[in-house]
Amino acid sequence: MAPLLQADNLTIAFGERAVVHGISFHVDAGETLGLVGESGSGKSATSLALLRLLPPGARISGSLRLAGEDLLALPEDAMRRHRGSSIAMIFQEPMTALNPVMTVGRQIAEAVLVHHPKLDRKAVKERVLAAMDEVGLPDPIRRYGDYPHQFSGGQRQRILIAMAIVNRPRLLIADEPTTALDVTIQAQILRLLDDLRRTHGLAMLFISHDLAVVAQVADRVAVMQHGHLVEQGAATELFRNPQHAYTRKLLASAPTMRTDRQQPLATLAGA
After folding, report:
1. Rounded to 5 degrees, what are φ and ψ at 122?
2. Which residues does UniProt assign to the signal peptide (predicted)?
3. In angstroms, what CA-CA distances link 204 with 90, 141, 194, 220, 267?
């Protein structure tokens, strides 16, 4: 079976400077690919390229195929129909992604109406409340009219997830979705994403600098360094037997219960 998403020789440049260098990877239907690397490695640029949301002046070459359709070749109106429908994204920081002066119910409803403008108000609200309930937001009917600042950090992230899944996308891009959360809430969000993936058969591109987080959710892992993909493989095998020196440094820089506290953690300087 062909992959749901196939990137071939993807290159991204700003002016004369390339930030992603001819990378190729795929995501199968229903699986999670973890895309990992330190800040500046090209992870987020790659995710924005999938949605064609890079800033003006960015140059993209290669191909990005979703179910065989080359996203880079689509006219803008056709691409707009994919965003939030067949491909959705969860951003890193809810307070900048959510509109602070709009109720959360209305914000999720707008995500529905963009792709289903003929739905009546009652049907839209039913979809919104169902999405809020599905992501574990308590008392959706009462909280429908609340504003983002009235929710905790973890609840705001759940609101973003509700906006992402309300139209039942085939591919979910999660860009550092737990970075701003404490460990307990982080675990809850990771569990929620995995449950949604299994329930709806979602494919997920999970982007993170944290290998420990990726280990909890990914079926396969692709490691980026300076815009290059340096290693790819099944998560269990990559964590057990990393082949590239950069991957080994990433693993060594993450503390575990067996880490010798008398020794400094490995660093990525000069990687």
Report:
1. -65, -45
2. none
3. 11, 29, 9, 11, 29
pLDDT attached to residue 95: 77
Place of tokens 């692709």: 222
Domain boundaries, the chain: 1-86+172-271, 95-168
Give the count of alpha carbons within 13 A of 72, CB side only.
21
What gap in Å lies between CA 241 and CA 238, rounded to an integer?
A: 5
Give the residue with greater pLDDT, 39 vs 195. Answer: 195
In the chain, the N- to C-terminal Cα span, in Å, equals 37
Length of the chain, please? 271
What residues contact 257, with CB distance under 8 A and at least 6 apart? none
**Cβ contacts of 66 within 8 Å, gap of 6 or more:** 4, 5, 82, 86, 87, 170, 171
Tell me the Ramachandran region of residue 130: left when phi exceeds 0, alpha when psi lies from -120 to 50, beta otherwise: alpha
What span, in angstroms and rounded, lies between the C-alpha atoms of 177 and 187?
A: 11
d(CA 183, CA 124) in angstroms, rounded, equals 34
* 127 three-class SS: helix
230, containing H or E segment = strand 228-234
Decide if pLDDT at 264 tops 70.
no
Strand partners, 221: 34, 233
CATH number for region 1-86+172-271? 3.40.50.300
pLDDT value of position 27: 97
Beta strand pairing call for 58-66 and 69-70: antiparallel
* Percentage of residues of the chain with pLDDT beyond 70: 93
Query: What confidence tens digit (pLDDT) does each residue in 67-113 have?
Result: 999 999 999 999 999 999 999 999 877 778 899 999 999 999 999 99
Residue 249 to residues 48, 201, 241, 243, Cα–Cα distance (Å): 27, 33, 12, 11
Structure-token pair, residue 49:
């390229």
